[in-house]
From TrEMBL:
InterPro entries to which the protein is assigned, alphabetical: ABC-2_transporter_component, ABC2_TM
One Pfam family here: ABC2_membrane_3
Record field: transmembrane: 29-49
Domain called ABC-2 type transporter transmembrane: residue spans: 28-115
Main location (coarse class): membrane
Membrane topology value: Multi-pass membrane protein
UniProt GO MF annotations: ABC-type transporter activity
GO cellular component: plasma membrane
Name the UniProt record assigns to this protein: ABC transporter permease
Subcellular location: Cell membrane
Protein's organism: Klebsiella variicola
Keywords assigned: Cell membrane, Membrane, Transmembrane, Transmembrane helix
């Protein structure tokens, strides 16, 4: 039985490319399909895919219920990127995160407004999350 050589040969590959070019030159419809289809797909898919996130479900754990924290939450929601879902405890936020109900957990610490009003360095707002694969 004759052994078949399945290894890559650059010479054979060039031969196939030249043969395909000759066939494409004879058929104008094939040339237009080869050239226009990728351009058409690029235009259509470029407008169809939107990588700008909107209304990301976000668990809000607000330990500071005063004015500045409400302003912070309102401003975050007004951006259109976050949809704040209030939760009562850290455990509830973690469960919602693990279930995939929320993408982020935002924790506003106690005393956030008081530190801002006293012109001290404000407590950091804690953002936790991971990229969504949905």
């Amino acid at each position: 039985m004759k052994k078949i050589n399945l290894s890559f040969s650059f010479t054979r590959w060039i031969g196939v490319v030249i043969k395909e070019i000759h066939e494409l030159r004879r058929d104008k419809v094939s040339i237009s399909m080869v050239l226009l289809t990728p351009i058409f797909q690029l235009i259509i898919l470029g407008y169809a895919i939107n990588m700008d996130p909107h209304n990301l479900p976000t668990a809000l754990l607000n330990y500071d219920t005063e004015r500045m924290s409400h302003i912070f939450v309102t401003e975050a929601q007004n951006t259109g990127y976050f949809s704040m879902i209030p939760v009562d405890s850290e455990e509830a936020a973690q469960k919602a995160f693990v279930r995939g109900d929320v993408t982020f957990i935002v924790t506003i610490p106690e005393g956030f407004t008081a530190q801002d009003a006293a012109w001290r360095k404000a407590s950091a707002v804690n953002f936790r999350g991971m990229p969504s694969i949905r």
